Amino acid sequence: MKKVLPLAFSTFLLASCSFIPQYSQPSVEVPSRWKSETAAENKVEIPAKWWTLYQDDTLNSLAEEALTQNLDLRAGFERVNQARAALRIAGASMLPSANASLGASRTRTDPASAKATNVNNFSGGLAISYDLDLFGANRATIEAARASLYGQQYEQEALKLVTLGDLTSAYFNLLTTRERVRIAEDNLKNFREVLHIIQVRVDTGLDSDLELSQQKVAVSSSEAALATHKQQEAIYQNALALLLGKAPQTFSLDSSKNIADFPVPQIAIEQPSVLLERRPDIHSVEQSLIAANANIGAARAAFFPSINLGGTATAAAASLGDPASTVLALASSLTAPIFSGGSLEGGLDQATSQQRELVETYRKTVLTSFREVEDALATTKAAAEREVALRSAMNNARRAYEISRKRYEVGTIDFQTLLDTQASLLSAEDTYAQALEAKLTASVDLVKALGGGWSELVPEQQSTPIPASAPASAPTSEPEEAPIKS
């Protein structure tokens, strides 16, 4: 008894052994505030369905459809499933395995003799084996597989954010282009009216053919611009079709909402340190780092012996109704590496280097996220200021054109002045429509840079190994049957 207790205690200590390095989040310089930070009055938090901030039913419908039909998201969902299956496979190493066998044979003795007899033999067996994970190799593999699953879940959330951001921007691009088409059509109509006026003046001898030719050039240029805008309209509509998983030939969006009717949300900006918790791409890289950390533990454990316990039971009988003879056997085996030609050392060096690489990747991902927020804040501020200035310019250009047209009709200004105000108005209206688009897409980029609203759906991450019978759950759902959460 005195010998058994120390042996049992030693076995317990070995069973609790783990060679996985203690994980700590890599250090990164985190600024205390944003350079482009603005006052936070009347600003809103980013909701889970952040696209609803733009208060448009058509956009809401497109976003919900993209969540289930976008092909990139559907492919990403399957990558999550693959990672979940890999965790189940890894978890199976912590459970015993059992195999059954059945056999039957018939032997004829002394076939040349008249006394030949037939001998039947029926047998069955059961074999059970179990690997003792004394040095934590299997547990390290499970830790790596679980971290890979979480990383894939976070990657899926990042993909949703990018996809819905692209969808929202493409929707604004389409509506802006339709507004530019309308502006070009209105200006073409005005240019043709002016052409008619000039034609009358030429016929009456008040103008020359030079003014008539110049106005015809303006009309033709306006027609060319209109054709270009219609081409862009088709391209943006095709882009929306692809984001929705549809063939362009089967998709058409009839919305003609004015781009000026969309509210531009004022987003509340939190401190830079909060970004590390909000950005799914940062979490994805960190989970890859945790997996690499666990792989170091598995590589270390490979230097130590592995122990397998097994048992077999076999039964044999001459016929199915006869009593069976039974044999029971228990066995154990220990396998220890003696010479591997450097493969074990190489495996450990490789795992360690991969972990160090991911440390630097994590740091770069964090710094990149800081830069993206700063860029988005600067762009948002500049877009708002530009929109105000261009709105004033457009209103002044419109007044100037109306005045010049009336004066030209009564002959108080020359044709060149009218032509200049026409060109100024067309340019001002077109540029202002683009400024509205830039203001909206800048707000979309800011939402994306801040991580969207995904943080409300982050799964609780368990710290214990997950056996094969209980794989980690993921905040995803089947395409078609249920929308993917966002």
Brief digest:
This protein has about 475 residues and is of the alpha+beta class. The chain has helices at about 5-15, 55-70, 70-90, 135-205, 210-245, 275-280, 280-300, 345-410, 415-450; strands spanning about 95-110, 115-130, 305-315, 325-335.
The CATH homologous superfamily of the domain at 27-96 and 143-305 and 360-457 is called: Outer membrane efflux proteins (OEP)
Name the CATH architecture of the domain at 27-96 and 143-305 and 360-457.
Up-down Bundle
Instruction: Give the topology string: H per helix, E per strand.
Output: HHHEEHHHHEEHH
User: What level of helicity do the residues show?
Assistant: 55-70%
Give the strand order, joined by hyphens, for the main sheet. 1-2-3-4
- Which structural class fits the helix and strand makeup? alpha+beta
Describe this structure in words.
This protein has 486 residues and is of the alpha+beta class. It has a domain at 27-96 and 143-305 and 360-457: Outer membrane efflux proteins (OEP), CATH 1.20.1600. 57% of the residues lie in helices and 11% in strands. Strand 1 (97-109) and strand 2 (117-132) form a beta hairpin. It is elongated. The two termini are 60 Å apart. Residues 456-486 have low confidence and may be disordered.
